[in-house]
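For practice. Supply one:
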Amino acid sequence: MPRIPESIKNPAKLFNGPGSLGRLYRQASALISAEQQIRAKVSGEVYVAGFEAGKLHLTTPSAALATQLRYRQRRFIGKLRINGELVAAIEVSVRPVSVPTRTETPGSRTLPPAVGQQIADSASHIDDPALRSALLRLSKRCNPADTP
């Protein structure tokens, strides 16, 4: 019978252990805690983007809120602790919420035969030969399967 890994027997050891997953989990929970502390004092959407060497990086989708945070950053500096380390500086950046753009694939469009007939009739009354031939080519593109 194969040996069952310790991580399967006790998954909590993955998050509480000294490994890289444990460090990542502790850092993420500390950043979430800092975000909750800031959101309790600031109304609006504020996100913690990172914390490194005493510098807390905040992002917000609003330029007005970013300006408000820059003015109020002295109140937060020294009062916030992340992983037991005091926040020495705060950097605020604006990151607008990105809305996914809808991409439409260009499909082939067909004209009903009645429209093709009207275009051909109109082309017979045109004096310009280049325009007449272009209109006749357009009228031939009509799909006969789309009869009204």
